[in-house]
Amino acid sequence: MTDRNDERKALESPGRRRFLGATAAVGMLGAAGGGAALMKSGEATAARNSGGAQSTHVPLGELDEYYGFWSGGHSGEVRVYGVPSMREIMRIPVFNHCSASGWGMTDESKRIMGDSWRFTNGDAHHPHVSYTEGSHDGRYLFINDKANTRVARIRLDVFKTDKMVTVPNVQAVHGLRLQKAPRTGYVFANGEYLIPQPNDGRGLDDTENYRTLYSAIDADSMEVKWQVLVDGNLDNTDADYTGKYTASTCYNSENAVTLAGKMQAERDHVVVFNIANIEKAVRDGNFTTIGDSDVPVVDGRKTSELNVTRYIPVPKNPHGLNTSTDGKYFIANGKLSPTVTMIDIAKLDDLFAGQLQNERDVVVGEPELGLGPLHTTFDGRGFAYTTLFLDSQVVKWNMENAVRHYNGENVDYIVQKIDVHYQPGHNHASLAESKDADGKWLFSLNKFSKDRFLPVGPLHAECDQMIDISGDEMVLVHDTPTFAEPHDAVIVRRDQITTKQIWDRDDPYFAETIEMARRDGVNVETDNTVIRDGNKVRVYMTSVAPSFGLSEFRVKKGDQVTVVVTNLDRIEDLTHGFCVTDHGVSMEISPLQTSSITFTADKAGVYWYYCNWFCHALHMEMAGRMIVEA
Ligand code: K7E
Ligand code: CUA
Ligand code: CA
What class of enzyme is it (predicted)? Predict the structure, then answer.
């Protein structure tokens, strides 16, 4: 490895090396503080470069080639960019609440969010677009909520969240990936933190017996189908391209509850899950349940005899887990180790059949790439790209050469290292979570941005950098500041997604609201009327630019008011809003959409409601009075 280290040093600037003198573990712990030393403004200028073969410029009036879906981290949302222009096109509220669209306020969104609507925060890390036979089919995007242990689905015909599930028996869903073939039947979710099972107040201090589980969610119904009890925790996960196997990294094989404890073992592990064997165990009744949940839980601990998991030792505290787009390897990113571990997926059948001596026999490469490898992406041409958090670099490397090197051949596998600014987490190349990886654009999602943008006080933006990977050399071409905090992104071709221009009147998104109207004897498309039901009042009105179907309605103080607005404008882009002043009531009503919102009229007086989506020359006049009688 010495020659490799020398080669790496030659590629890195002296300033970086000085910062990185310590061991990986110490460096990682000091990353936030040490980062300041790394980010000298002079260095940032020197490292800036441009002039890739491809242009990020999309001429005025032309459309981007790709959709990029960025997770919003602890903003709880998903953001949609056009790639390569990096124009932010849309934000999709998911786990957060949205002042503009009324997500979290409307009756439709509350139904979808279920009990968890009372949480106004989320921590969205891993967005993934559904598959058919390893290619993106553009039906759905799925995303996890680490903060409140949820998984959500977004419809990509309307770009709206349409299902949300709180996963039982686990705390903090972190790693999330989809079954890639034959289609996305399952969404796989890692429970990250170790907790007593069940977590009902018993066994609080029995930390040795804290456990977590791997969950499979039915992508169509969004119900949790089964869970697998594991040893250690679960960080990131990915699925293969056949539908047989998935794998997850574990940084806490120690079952520790302290930072020091989680770094004790020299090796942690990757758990490989055998999907067919898990399904068989469920079918055969070889499962238990935990607490109040009726989800089948299959024992996948090391002591289990169900043949559903294997634990492959890897260097300590790995992080990202990425399947190469040729379907050959699960790649576990070392984090505290300068290596990534390549697991040969083709050898997993033999491993589960008991035909290998040792779990490590499925490891076919362990290239040393640099300090702090976190995530890896692919170009479809045999090269992998790994972020080096501590080195603040992306390294391009040759996968087959890494395997040959592991076999003792004297070949180089590192192709190039490029500086990024600074401290990258995920990276993601165009189409690189599908077998269609096209090796055009690479994004490095960097955690620090000091010196790159106008200062805005102590809190800085994150910095997403765009790298042209279409040629032999990586070329940095663009910086995009992003707000807290894209962990991951997915980029699909624009032809892989088909959207509706206006809503269908029979869309399930608001079917329950239409059903409520039917029970009230109301046709929401023609009737403007008020229905009283005890102290519940339902106000039905239409909207046609520039007026609401009702210019006033009357309720009594203390009434619970539900306002249902149906937008009869069938013109693309003609969205109305409905906002009641001084009541915290706001929602979007896009063309042919029905939206509803429920609130208490708790103050007597006159309150204007108005359209808050600029729709017409007389948009300001599109208003009416809610008259609340004492
Ligand atoms: Cu590395 Cu949540 Cu995918 Cu952040 S995780 S970086
Ligand atoms: Cu309707 Cu503005
Ligand atoms: Ca560990």
Answer: oxidoreductase
